[in-house]
């Protein structure tokens, strides 16, 4: 269907896109209102000028190439260009052109340009914002990850403080009770013997009095270190308080526990502390736990035996087989306790 010339003419006049018709030398023959508005020139100023007028200074030398391209191709693919407004502003335009060749060799190049400067600026703005957001997000992730690490570290530290004796690094009393409860549960389940040993450094007060509290602390640390070296991984050892240690030896009946206890007493006797200025001994109360009795009961028995060892002259172990849970008086509970020397 042919479009009437007056419609085409009206289209040229009212189009919001800039339309220009140029000759084979790229000189403007006709421009519409929108084209003039786009570049800030009047029609009179444009007619007769070449399109080089609207090229960026850096693109000026490309004018012949662009012209050749327009003449040799029938129709360009729409593309984005940067062009120059009269006042020097750079404009982004979306362009399309079509070339008409006449039999006499002359040509008419029809160009349509739409101003997309605001769109491009908005897009770039959005991209910048996206970049900023991404960076902010990365920073946030880093902050969160650092905080999480700090929190995990703090939690581990808290857990350590809650379970460890700060001086010796051994379990504290609470942690011992928790771990021992698990161990005796397993022992009862599998009907396995286990033994409990209370140890107490002899005359420790005199070490503090003679050498000072700091040296006393070191003696406690060295004692703890020595005890650990003599135990199995499955054994539990804790600082019960002051100069007192408690051990739970799973899978260990009394006769085997006695070997361990004597080994510890021997090792403590042989400890060379502060260039042999300090020598210590330790006393112990050792009992084999009777199955299905509360831990507390076994601990009391071991403590009573320790008391007996101290009463019998220190530097020795007092031991006894397991007693039934309901013993009327623990003080008289060990008529048969063995005291070694
Ligand atoms: N250096 C140091 N001393 C401690 C610590 N905890 C407790 N003590 C001291 O250990 C001493 C224990 O004294 P006593 O309970 O009389 O016992 P002992 O002198 O070892 O005497 P026996 O147990 O009867 O052989 C006290 O002087 C406490 O102050 C500690 O963490 N560091």
From TrEMBL:
Gene3D superfamilies for the chain: 3.30.70.270, PAS domain
Domain (GGDEF) ranges: 192-322
Entries under InterPro entries matching the protein: Diguanylate_Cyclase, GGDEF_dom, Nucleotide_cyclase, PAS, PAS-like_dom_sf, PAS_fold, Rev_trsase/Diguanyl_cyclase
GO annotation (BP), single: regulation of DNA-templated transcription
Keyword Coiled coil: yes
UniProt KW keywords: Coiled coil
Domain PAS positions: 4-74
Coiled coil: 119-146
Cross-referenced PANTHER family: DIGUANYLATE CYCLASE DGCM-RELATED, REGULATORY COMPONENTS OF SENSORY TRANSDUCTION SYSTEM
Name of this protein: diguanylate cyclase
UniProt lineage: Bacteria, Pseudomonadati, Pseudomonadota, Betaproteobacteria, Neisseriales
